[in-house]
Amino acid sequence: MRTDQPVLPGTSLGGTSPRTVWDGFHAPRLTQARRLAGLTKRDVAEGIGVSAAAVGQYEAGTNRPRPELIPRLADVLDVPMQFFVAGRPMGKLDSSMAHFRALRSTSGAQRERALGFVEQVWELTHALEKRVQLPLVNLPGFTGGEVHPGIDLPADPVGAARELRRHWGLGDGPVRHLARRMESHGLIVAAPSEADAAAAKVDAFSSCGLLRPVVVLTPNRADDVYRYRFSAAHELGHLVLHTASTGDSLLEREADSFAAEFLTPEKSVLPLLPRRVDLARLAGLSRTWGVSVSSLVYRYRELGLVSDATISRSYQRLRGLSRQPGFAPESVRGFPGEQPVMLRKAFELAEQDTGLTIRELAAELAWKPARVRELLGMPDSRPVLRLV
Questions:
Q1: Contact 9/127 with Cβ under 8 angstroms?
Q2: Sheet holding 188-190, edge to edge
Q3: For the HTH cro/C1-type domain, which residue ranges apply (predicted)?
Q4: I need a labelling partner for 309 at 20 to 30 A (CA). Which of 6, 42, 200, 288 fits?
C-alpha cells in the first residue's frame, strides 16, 4: 500500500479504485499534472504504453485512459490517482496570463511548468482561505481586488510607482521587507525551493489571471537579495501596469522603470547620489535602500546625471569588485523579511484553530502530503534513515 496517497473525503485508500477515478476523470487535471512533471505527451505515452495521440485525446477530453492505465499514469506523473478526479476548485492559466522576467531564456515547456506551479499555489491558497481570512487584496488596477481604493494609478511607470507608494503608506524612505509588504496587501508571493522543478529554469514571474495576484520569486537563478527584491518590484509593476503579457520588450522596460522608482524614489535618492560615480559610497546606499550598486549606477543614467561612457566605465569597475565585501551578492536566506510566510502562517493558524493537518489538507487537494509541505515551505522534519 502506498502510504503517501492522500485520502479523499468520504473514501479510504482501499476504496478509491482505478474504476472510481475513471468514472470522475477530469482531463484538465492530466494536463496540469503533465505540466508539473515537465513531460511531453510522448513522454507520458511511453511511460504508460500508449501512443502520443492517445494522450492528446485524454487531455482533450475526447477519450479517457482505461482504468488499468490510471495507476501507471499516476506513477509516471508522481501524483495520487485521486488527483485526476473532477470536482475540486482549479485555477487555470495560459501563457498570456503571466509575465515572465526572463522570457527569452525560458522555453515554452519551462513556462508551462511554471504555470502549473502557480495553479497549485492558488489551489492551496483557496483551500486555506476557506478556514482563515487572508489579507484583503489591496492593489489598485487589479480587477479582482477586494479593497476598492477609488483611485486609478497613472499609466506611466514612474507615476504609478509614486502613487502606489503613497497608497500603501510607504513614505519616501527605503521599502523594508518587500515580500512581506506585498503579502500584507493580499498578494500571494511564492518562493519555490531549488528542488522545485517548476522553478528550475525560470527567474521570476507574475500573474493576475486568478482571484488573487501571484508573484513567484526564484532565488536559485541568482541568490542575491538585491536582485530578488528588484525582481519582486518589477513583477509588482507588471501587475499594476499591464493587463496581459505580450512578450514586448517595452513592457519589461516599463516594469524596470516602475521597480527603480518604487525602490529608490527620485526625490529621495537624487540628493544622496554623489556628483561623481563613487562606488564605495554607492555600496553604502545599496545597503540602506536594499538595491544593488549596479541598480544605483543605472539610476544615474535614468536621471541623466552622467554620460553613457561614464556608466560603461562604472560597470567595468563593478565587475572587478564583484567578489569584494559590499559588492558580492548576499543570500536571500539572510533576510527573513524578504521570504514569504503568508501561506505557512495561514496553515499554522488553521492547525491551531481547527486542528487541520497536512494529511487532511493533502486529501482535500488530492496531492501527496510532501507536496503540501513543500509549497507551504515546511520541509519534513523527520530524521532520515540511511542504510549503508
A1: no
A2: 98-100, 204-207, 214-217, 188-190
A3: 30-84
A4: 288
